[in-house]
């Protein structure tokens, strides 16, 4: 698969025209599987449209749209995000009407999802066997895994081109999703982060190894991708491997590949990451957890730019840049005998420290805004805001899990919060200390200032000034009319009780009908 893999990378990495890229992408996949028929489908509204097809009478398929709710292999793959193998005629998912006007029918269908970096599926590609025997498709598990990796890489090029296509412009929701596919942006204007990004930009101009250090969840892989994006290798593959999440022997085969028959179960040869990324960048995450026996092999890659797949007697030259990352103290690991000192010095040519989130609290508000906006793009989601008190709590929180913890916390809070505005009460389900934080702990001056800022301009009396922060005895309600104070109190109770009017009325000490009439008089609606 080696030569064909190289041809595949070449085909999808050097083409910018959308239609030509789709064609090259599909034909390259068909060549890898030695078949003639295939198709590419993308989301179009609530259905799925064929945007490219190859094989006899393919013009009958291009432009065909599968209506939502109709069973099809394409719909199943896109909705489930999984590869599948289907036998037409026996598989209930097969949309047989699509082939009614085609003379040669499909015998076996291999369908892969097209994924964004966010994990969302935006389309699918079908590779179709039409021979009478139905045995030309290579269905070996190792081969299919390698093929999925190639398809993921091709999805990057295809997704970037789709952003600028007329088809995507007709579908704003899909365009916004594909924009996110370019890569999760690095958010923040703090001096600590900007200094890190400046150094990353300088490192991108070289080909030396980079060692990124920092706590878990700080975004080390994002920094690695940024270095790759700014480098001369930007149009070549960026392949990442976590060195701590798979067994030692499997990690070795993932990185270096193996030849057919190298060990029991090696029925087909497999290309390793170093060979697949030739010309590009390999990102080794959690390098500090790499087994000792593999460290010597990585050292040879760095020193000699060569690899030797398992079962192979000859070494192969590779041209890759290695960027590694760890949250461990490698000098301490060296002292404990768990990490090779010579490898450390080879990898640490260009060191880069990523600051923890607690060291750049000014970046928390824009990060929150980004995550809220991104989650609001999901189907059926609504855009939510964060109250000032909740924002203050989140900014002051220490975030031991850094940006990853912030992102996951927001997802959790959005799921359980019914109100449009996230309050400290809502945060309490995730951060016990938030709900217990009394509003009265703020100074009267700060409370008065914040309350006045929350009043819409048209509700403030003409000529009213903001509360005087220099007057230490000024009550928080100074500058309010009675109606304004009642309006904000009722709104507060509704928000606190998640718009359950009966509970809000009970807390106010009045019956529901009285509370409801005050809501109508104050023009308060959800």
Secondary structure: elements and pairs:
Blueprint: H1 2-13, H2 18-33, E1 37-44, E2 47-54, E3 65-66, H3 73-80, E4 84-86, E5 108-115, E6 121-129, H4 141-163, H5 166-169, H6 172-181, H7 191-204, E7 210-213, H8 220-230, E8 238-242, H9 248-256, E9 257-258, E10 270-271, H10 273-276, E11 281-285, H11 292-304, E12 306-307, E13 316-317, E14 321-326, H12 330-335, H13 341-347, E15 350-353, H14 364-376, E16 385-386, H15 388-396, H16 402-416, E17 421-422, H17 424-427, H18 432-435, H19 444-454, H20 482-496, H21 501-508, H22 512-521
Parallel strand pairs: 7-14, 7-15, 8-11, 11-14, 16-17
Antiparallel strand pairs: 1-2, 1-6, 2-3, 4-5, 5-6, 9-10, 12-13
Helix pairs in contact: 1-2, 1-4, 2-4, 4-6, 7-8, 11-13, 14-16, 20-21, 21-22
Key features?
Rossmann fold; 22 helices; Beta-Lactamase; single chain; Helicase, Ruva Protein, domain 3; 17 strands; 526 residues; alpha/beta; five-stranded parallel beta sheet; six-stranded antiparallel beta sheet; 14% strand; flat
